Amino acid sequence: MISVHPARRWPVAPIVSLLGSTVAAELALTYGTESFPSNLLCDLALIAVFVAAIERRYKAMLAAAGLACGLALYGAMLLPLAIGLASSRRAARRALLLVPLLACFAIIALGRPWLPSSLIGMWSVARQPDLTGLMAAFALGSLAWLTATLSARPLMHDMVPTAALSCALGCALVLPGASMAVPLALACRCKDRRVSLLTALAALLAAFAVPIPATLALTVALTLAARSLRTPAANDNRVFARKLRFVTLV
Fold first, then answer.
1. pTM for the whole thing?
2. Mind listing the pLDDT tens digit for each residue in 230-247?
């Protein structure tokens, strides 16, 4: 059977640039903390998810997503994108088993992921123990909604970076202890400077332990980034057909 979405190679320079910005952001945000080693490994796995999605290598994408989930809780950041793309593009159903298998392997090999305190997102704002169950249900519901949305709506290839950025920002908003390195690296490649500046502001405020303003900045950045994923307007309507473009060619 011939695939309608053949694999393609992404240029090396954008990958190296993305890796460099991610590592630099993680060094600046969490270096010297107990979570730095696992965060760095998780960030590298998330970048592998993104690159595999761009190159249409869906088995590698799902494998990297499972590994990221086992390395840190926020490793589920790009899981909706991975499952959504694999489902909408008719990847082999058996490949979906790579996610739980590799997540379990990472947990068994490296131990249970360490959960740092939340400095950004809804978990940093609602600190009451009575709200833990509600926040957990909201986080799981958000991940399920993102996955279902990306599965039901086929994404054009040039929309994958926008979907990845929206997933990263949205999951950073609802998952506890999320690192902002990958969302910041993805946002810096966006041509809409409002998104990159707001994401950088959110990461900076979180680094200085100012959770409420950081969460507000993250929410606005997510709103701007996800706006282009709504139902597109007609191709000849230049007023309403606004697409979020990235610097790199995909």
1. 0.85
2. 655 444 444 444 444 555
